[in-house]
Amino acid sequence: MKIPSAALFVAAATLPLFASASEMTRPEAGKPPIMKTSEIKPGMKGVAWTVFQGLEPEPVPVEIIGVWKNMWGPGQDIILGKMGGKVQRTNVAGGMSGSPVYIDGKLIGAVSTRIGAFSPDAICGITPVELMLEVQDFDTSQPADAIVPDRVQARSPYRIPGDLLNQAVAAGASPKILDSPYLTPIETPLAFSGFHESVLREFGPFFQQLGIKAVQGGASSTLRSPKPAPGWEKSLRPGDAISAVLVSGDMSISALGTVTYNDGKKVLAFGHPLFNIGPVNMPIAKAEVLMVFASSFSPNKFGNATEIVGALRQDRHSAILGELGATSEMIPVEVTVRSFNDAGAVRKEKKVSFNVFVQQKWTPYLMMVTLFNCISGLNDFAEEATYRLMGQVELDGEEPLSLSTMQAPSDLPIPAPMQLAGWWGDKFNRLFLNAAKFPKFKSVNATIDLLPERRVASIENAWVAESEVDAGSEVPVKVFLRPFRGERIEREFKVKIPTGLPKGTHRLLLSDADTLNRMQARGASNRYMDLQQTVSLINQERSNNKLYVSILQSRPTVYYDDKTLPSLPASVLNVLQTGRTASRGFTASAETAHEQLEIPFDQIISGSFSLNITVR
What we know:
Blueprint: H1 5-23, E1 45-51, E2 57-73, E3 76-83, H2 87-90, E4 100-103, E5 106-115, E6 123-128, H3 129-133, E7 158-159, H4 162-170, E8 182-185, E9 188-193, H5 197-209, E10 212-216, E11 218-219, E12 241-249, E13 252-262, E14 266-269, E15 278-293, E16 300-315, E17 320-324, E18 330-340, E19 346-357, H6 362-374, E20 386-395, E21 401-407, H7 416-432, E22 441-451, E23 456-464, E24 468-469, E25 474-483, E26 489-496, E27 504-511, H8 513-521, H9 531-540, E28 546-553, E29 557-560, E30 563-565, H10 570-579, E31 587-589, E32 592-600, E33 604-606, E34 608-615
Helix pairs in contact: 6-7, 7-9
């Protein structure tokens, strides 16, 4: 059979590429010689190092296609290459980000981008090492395009110029890449260990929009303390797998990539940002690769984070920068989940301990994801279950934050566990949003009770024994509540009429927590509240499993930051209005609510009802 001359040419061109790769020894730590982008020419043969299985990286032949000028921005080029060896079968996979590429023993950069889905060729973009080394000189400012949970944005694809496409075809790439000539950043596999598949199903699309691939993964039992493990000095050599650790412990979340550069203390990896949030303090760990999932659509590495060996210090446009031997601050969290039987006794109890990395946008979201995971996938889960949460957040230099709420199924399309997780994450978001001081967390503890059936009740009616009362006396009151199912609930109690309550008609208000919280929340509208005021305001919030009894007086109340100023005289109100500033305004209500009583229920209370009383 006659072999076409074109095929012979491609085979001949490929042989020396494989030969040079097999002869190379793996790179070691230390400052390597650098080849500048200006020295790189089409047709040059190089080798990349990446881990396909286990811990040891393997060489991968690379043929240079050309240099794409100004792709990242003015003066920021990217190198295009065609990868051979095993990558011809797997394609350029998630987790290969940062794989160092050498030509004649000189480091040229890191694999960072690939041709879009369904490309038959392993075409990659290589971030020049000059751009990556710039990360060491950056300050502590945050990039404007940081990828954080409240700023969802997909990473943009980049169309390849025609001249580079021609060079790619000349290098042996299939003309089919002309159908989708886009270069996209390699998705970072975000491995979730100890997480139920429902968590990935619920939150996976969100991470996808951030350019992050959520996958089920694993983590070593040693991944518990943020302190570097013994032997960190010899870890994370060029070509090794690296994990940036967002959560560690009984459950973990880690982002997998490859080390590009190690000078003995500082390491560079990825060749593109993780979240592009600039200065960061996140643990970095060694990683073991289980396999590379070969796919023309979404190839990915699967692996386990093993031992923490340092801290991530910079997350920038062209690389991430880590410091070996450094320790990152993390928040220790313990969640206890208890299930109850119909008799009200604890049937089963489970404790989960983990650590969450500290960042003002990501920490609240991770608190939400981890709490949702703690109550997902349990055998005790039921559609009509009610969730009761009691928690405490210990802060350095501040009073503890005490949290309490209940969540039950409702007519909303959001399941109760997701509503509870959102409520939990919002409290941490408010702490970080204070304008004066970055919160320092000592510990977080929460207990979640799974109660059988939907436990909700609405205030339906109320009755007072006497409508005409004397100041200082006690008045019998009866309230009627309508539960979701079952008999109407009656509760009788006595309300003490304040001694100083003036004569005239007033309102006796029986309400849920939201009614009173909304009134007080109006005063928290200014953006200059400090951490102490934020903690105080959260601690003053009422719990939704109590019924609150208040006497409303027709005198104004002012809500200012975390303070409630009841029954203000008109003269004082005028002074406040004159002296207020636009940045620190206050809200006034026409009535003053004097809380007299709170009645606990083992149900979520909603609604309100008022009765008129006259003080003689």
